[in-house]
Design brief:
Helix 5 packs parallel to helix 6 and helix 7 crosses helix 8. With 448 residues, the protein is an alpha/beta fold.
C-alpha cells in the first residue's frame, strides 16, 4: 500500500502544526533525544498568546526555545519525568518541576490515569516514514506507544538523522494515527557524552565489580563515570557470552559488543537480542543502533518490569548513587531538596537483579566528593541529607561498592550494616561515622 498521498495531505509547516495548541493544554514534547526541535521553536513564537501550557517530557539534552524568554514561566511549565542538566536550570527559574515516578509504570500512567495524566497534544521527533507507513521512535520507545494511544492530537517531526531502532512492539507510530507531519531542519541527534576519562577511583570500583561478573551474565548499566568505567573494563576482560537487558543504552555497551563480549546466547528471554527502553550517547552509539537487528527497542513497562529482569539468570545491575546512610538507604536522585535526576528504574533493577538466579545489584560511588568551596565530604553519611529522597530502601540494597571495598548488606542487622558501610568509607571519616553510629544506637564493634 502506498502512503505517499496521505503523507502529502498531512504534511504541514511547524507553525501550522502547533496552531492546534491552546491555553491550558498538556503537551507531550517527546523523550530524551526525540524531544522536538522545529516544533519547539514554532511554539516559542506563540508565547504571548498562550498561558498555562503544561509541557511534559524528560532527560532534556539541550535548552528549549520556549524557555528562552525571561518571562517564559508565565506561559509554560515543564513537567519532567526525569531531570537533566537543562531541567535543573529551569527548576532554579521556577519553570520546571519533577514528577516522581516508578519508571516501569509510566505507560500505565497514560493509559489508566487519563484524568490525572491528560495528553491534549503529543509531538516528538521520529525517523522518516518506512514503506509500511510507520514512523520509528528512534532510541526512545520508552512510553511513547502509550502516549500515542492516549493523545488527542499527534504531531511527528521527521528527522533524517534519527536512527531507526528495531524492536517488534511499540517502537513506532503509524501514519493513520498521526494528525500532522512536520519535516524539521534535521539537526544532529543530541549527544550525551560519557564524561571525562575514568579516574583512579572509577577504575578501582570497576575492578571490584567486574571480578563478580560471570561469563554469560546479563548486564544493566546506569549512566555516569563508574558504570562506563565498568563497561570499559568488561570490554578489555576475558568475559564472554554476555547479554544486555537495560533501561538505558549507553556507549559502553557498544564498546563491549565490538570487543566481541556480547552474544546473548545464555539469555532465557529475548535470546541474542540487546534489549533497552531508550538510548542516549554519542554518534558512535546512534550509528550502531540504526537498523541493527541485534538490538531490541522495547517499552519501559517491559524492560523495567521486575518479572522480565528476574527471569534472566545472573543478572548484573550497576548503578550510581548520590549518597548512602548507615542504615543502607540509597539516595540517587536528590541532594537534600535539590532534585538532581530522577528515580528512573533503579529500584526496579535493584529488586529484579536480586530475584534473578545468581543475580547481583551493585550501587557504586566514590567514598567522598568535594564541594565548590573545596571541602571534602563523605558520601557515606550517618543519615541522608535532610530532605534527600530515598531511591532504594534499606531492605532492598544489595552490594555497595566504593574504592575502599565491597560489602553486601542483605540480611545484616543495623549494627552489622553500619560496620560494613563504615569499612568502605574514606578512612578520614570512619571515626566520625562510628561516633554517630554510637549516638544512633546502631554500633556494636564485632570481633572480626
Amino acid at each position: 500500500m502506498d502512503f505517499s498521498e496521505e503523507y502529502r495531505q498531512k504534511l504541514v509547516s511547524a507553525d501550522q502544526a502547533v496552531s492546534v495548541i491552546k491555553s491550558g493544554d498538556w503537551v507531550d514534547y517527546g523523550w530524551c533525544v526525540a524531544t522536538v526541535d522545529a516544533l519547539d521553536k514554532a511554539l516559542a513564537k506563540r508565547t504571548d498568546e498562550l498561558t498555562n501550557i503544561n509541557l511534559r517530557g524528560g532527560i532534556l539534552l539541550k535548552p528549549l526555545a520556549v524557555f528562552e524568554r525571561e518571562d517564559a514561566g508565565e506561559h509554560f511549565t515543564w513537567n519532567s519525568w526525569h531531570m537533566g542538566g537543562p531541567e535543573r536550570k529551569l527548576v532554579a527559574r521556577g519553570c520546571a518541576y519533577y514528577a516522581p515516578i516508578r519508571y516501569s509504570e509510566l505507560p500505565r500512567y497514560y493509559r489508566d490515569l487519563k484524568d490525572d495524566c491528560p495528553d491534549d497534544v503529543a509531538m516528538f521527533q521520529v525517523a522518516p516514514m518506512d514503506k509500511h507507513g510507520f514512523f520509528n521512535f528512534g532510541p526512545s520507545a520508552s512510553h511513547m506507544g502509550a502516549v500515542c494511544e492516549t493523545a488527542k492530537h499527534i504531531i511527528v517531526e521527521v528527522n533524517q538523522n534519527m536512527p531507526r531502532c528495531l524492536g517488534g512492539t511499540e517502537c513506532g507510530v503509524h501514519i493513520s494515527q498521526v494528525d500532522a507531519i512536520v519535516e524539521g531542519d534535521n539537526p544532529p541527534i543530541a549527544e550525551l557524552g560519557a564524561g571525562g576519562p575514568a579516574t583512579d577511583v572509577d577504575k578501582k570500583v570497576a575492578q571490584l565489580i567486574v571480578d563478580q561478573i560471570p561469563n554469560g551474565a546479563c548486564l544493566q548499566l546506569g549512566i555516569g563515570g563508574m558504570p562506563n568505567a565498568v563497561g570499559s573494563l568488561i570490554a578489555e576482560s576475558d568475559l564472554k557470552d554476555l547479554g544486555v537487558h537495560t533501561e538505558m543504552y549507553v556507549d559502553a555497551f557498544v564498546d563491549i559488543a565490538k570487543a566481541g563480549k556480547i552474544t546473548g546466547a545464555h539469555k532465557s528471554i529475548d535470546r541474542f537480542r540487546q534489549v533497552y527502553a531508550f538510548g542516549a550517547g554519542t554518534k558512535k552509539m546512534y550509528d550502531y543502533l540504526d537498523e541493527n537487528p541485534e538490538l531490541m527497542s522495547a517499552p519501559v513497562d517491559y524492560t523495567n518490569d521486575i518479572r522480565s529482569i528476574s527471569a534472566l539468570d545472573n543478572f548484573i545491575s550497576i548503578n550510581n548513587c548520590v549518597d548512602i546512610d548507615l542504615f543502607g538507604q540509597i539516595s540517587s536522585e536528590s541532594s537534600g531538596i535539590k532534585q538532581i535526576s530522577g528515580a528512573g528504574g533503579q529500584q526496579d533493577f535493584v529488586l529484579g537483579a536480586y530475584l534473578s538466579r545468581g543475580g547481583k545489584s551493585f550501587i557504586c560511588c566514590s567514598s567522598t566528593f568535594t564541594d565548590k568551596q573545596g571541602q571534602m565530604h563523605s558520601r557515606i553519611r550517618p543519615t541522608l541529607t535532610n530532605g534527600s529522597v530515598v531511591t532504594d530502601t534499606r531492605s532492598n540494597t544489595h552490594f555497595v561498592v566504593t574504592e575502599y571495598g565491597m560489602v553486601c548488606l542483605k540480611g545484616l542487622s543495623a549494627w552489622q550494616r553500619a560496620e560494613a558501610l563504615i569499612s568502605v568509607a574514606h578512612p578520614d571519616f570512619r571515626d566520625e561515622l562510628v561516633a554517630e553510629a554510637e549516638k544512633m544506637n546502631i554500633w556494636r564493634k564485632s570481633n572480626k
